[in-house]
């Protein structure tokens, strides 16, 4: 799969309400259209990340791919914030917190996200006009 170098791919759990909300949040603020989105349950994730069926069935993390580098957990979330306009960039100050602590908090939320935020019956579908921002 050939993508422009300036693009950032956000791999997300397409069934998760929280994850889909994060995607909508990014879309609303990404005026430069740097971000592309791919569900962890899709063929792009399988091809690029080598995810097997068991990993696609129970994804546990938001993943961000840029220029051949994969970020996960809190580093992925902070990398997204770094590329958003305005005051959202201030979230990168959370890098001052040691990654084991940041990731511990991230994993608590990730493990409980379906219980706290809910789960879709089907994978999130892009809104009309945004299809080109989503990979299969």
Structure description:
Helices cover 40% and strands 13% of the residues. It has 5 helices and 4 strands; from the N terminus they run βαβααββαα. The chain has a 4-stranded mixed beta sheet with strand order 2-1-3-4, sandwiched between helices. β3 and β4 form a beta hairpin.
Short recap of the structure:
The chain is of the alpha+beta class and 136 residues long. It has 5 helices and 4 strands; from the N terminus they run βαβααββαα.
Question: What labels would you give this structure?
Answer:
alpha+beta, globular, four-stranded mixed sheet
Layout of helices and strands, plus pairs?
Elements (H helix, E strand, L loop, with lengths): L7 E5 L4 H13 L5 E5 L3 H7 L3 H5 L5 E4 L2 E4 H10 L16 H19 L19
Parallel strand pairs: 1-2
Antiparallel strand pairs: 1-3, 3-4
Strand percentage: 5-15%
Number of H- or I-type helical stretches: 5
The secondary-structure element order is EHEHHEEHH
Enumerate the spans where pLDDT stays under 50 for 5 or more consecutive residues.
none
Number of discrete domains? 1
Major pleated sheet: 4 strands, mixed
Radius of gyration: 14 Å
Range of helix content? 25-40%
Tell me the number of strands: 4
Silhouette:
globular
- Placed side by side, the strands forming the largest sheet appear as 2-1-3-4
Class by SSE composition: alpha+beta
Q: State the separation between the terminal residues, measured CA to CA.
A: 12 Å
Q: Kindly state the mean pLDDT as a whole number? A: 85
């Amino acid at each position: 799969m050939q993508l422009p170098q300036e693009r950032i791919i956000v791999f997300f759990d397409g069934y998760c309400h929280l994850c889909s909300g994060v995607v909508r949040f990014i879309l609303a603020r990404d005026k430069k259209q740097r971000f592309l989105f791919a569900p962890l349950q899709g063929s792009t994730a399988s091809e690029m990340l080598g995810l097997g069926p068991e990993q696609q069935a129970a994804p546990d993390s938001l993943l961000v791919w840029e220029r051949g580098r994969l970020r996960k957990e809190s580093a992925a979330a902070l990398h997204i914030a770094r590329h958003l306009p305005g005051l959202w960039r201030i979230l990168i100050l959370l890098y001052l917190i040691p990654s084991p602590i940041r990731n511990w908090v991230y994993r608590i939320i990730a493990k409980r996200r379906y219980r706290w935020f809910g789960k879709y019956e089907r994978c999130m579908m892009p809104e009309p006009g945004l299809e080109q921002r989503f990979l299969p």
